Amino acid sequence: MTIERPFLMLLGLTALVALAGCEHGGARTAFDGTTALGYVKTQLDFGTRVPGTEGARKTGDWIVEQMKQRADTVIEQRWTHVTVKGDTLPLRNILARFRPDDPDRVLYVTHWDTRPVSDGENTPPGEQNLPMPGANDGGSGVALFIALGDVLKKTPPTVGVDLLFVDGEDYGSFNAPPCPHGQDCPAYGPDVLIGSAYFAKHLPSPDYHPLYGVLWDMIGDANLDIYQEPNSMNGAPEVVTLVWGEANKLGYSRYFIPQPDPKGAVIDDHIPLLQAGLRVIDVLDIDYPYHHTPQDTLDKLSAQSLQVVGDVATALVTQ
Which helix (H) or strand (E) holds 105? Predict the structure, then answer.
């Protein structure tokens, strides 16, 4: 993902998400943050998950195996993508479904690939061409979903739940190509958000329209501060209200901060889904010093942060 600047602060919309109530100390669900942190380590042991690499193949196979043990149905979308440089990438989205026949559904999204270069602002000189480990950026969302699957296997959700692992989010440049005047052009480059854009054009059924959706990305940061992402506030404000309201009820408003993100709007996997008419928001901590660097490693994450986000994600679909 990348930060989109400048952005509108949407002060009027902030009033919609002002959440009354006091801290309750964090009412834990059956979600286990320590287990989730272990799932991050498993991914790192496979190596970087750049599309087309052995680490990506092993990780994708592992995700499918894990979700088949937990979900009612697992669907794979496989295709190839040719980049602007002419590289051919083998890609796959993985969709794990709980209560697949329930017409009332919630869509959760995360990406499972990692970026092939470390071009973040804090990357040390000479390391920009190294692939990043992706503990938080990629690993944390996948770990969240598998640990959530542990819960939903034992306690079926109150609605149908789709856990979508998308591929190719972080491959190329996020900068949009030049757009001819008068044409409707994408707000991002052709070699990023590939899996979410593919899913938006290849939905599970022609009438697929979940009640709402949440993209969970970079949610394991040990110093967790999740603000409300402005593109989400513009595109699906009622979903922002719902998620931050649930966090407040659980006593987590110190982590889910009911204010627009001071770093600005973010181009992430929710954008193609919003453009397709799905009400999907982005839950992420973009203020992560190790974003797109070789230092995005396991020691920068915490089981407590995964617990906080896991509790919110679990409560939304089980209560």
Answer: strand 105-111
Q: What pLDDT was estimated at residue 229?
A: 98
Which DSSP letter does residue 291 get?
Answer: T
Query: CA 304 to CA 76: how far, in whole Å?
Result: 31
Residue 202 amino acid letter: H
| b/e 230-260 (16+ beta carbons within 10 angstroms → b) | bbbbebbbebbbbbbbbbbbbbbbebbbbeb
Q: Whose structure tokens read 């699906």? A: 236
**CA 261 – CA 242 distance, rounded (Å):** 17
Copy the structure tokens of residue 60.
């994708």
2 DSSP 8-state letter = E
CA-to-CA distance for 114 and 78, rounded, in angstroms? 18
Q: What's 44's DSSP letter?
A: H
Closest CA to 163 of 19, 282, 63, 283: 63
Q: What pLDDT does 178 receive?
A: 85
pTM as predicted = 0.92
Pairwise CA distance, residues 117 & 127, whole Å? 9
Cβ proximity of 305 and 224 under 8 Å: yes
How many Cα neighbours within 13 Å face the side chain of 197? 17
pLDDT in tens, 75-128: 999 999 999 999 999 999 999 999 999 999 999 999 999 999 999 999 999 999
Cis amide linkage into residue 6, ω under 30° from 0: yes
For position 185, what pLDDT does the model report?
80
Cβ contacts of 6 within 8 Å, gap of 6 or more: 264
Q: What parts of the chain have a pLDDT lower than 70?
A: 4-27, 182
Location of structure tokens 């040719």: 82
Helix (H, G, I), strand (E, B) or coil at 19: coil
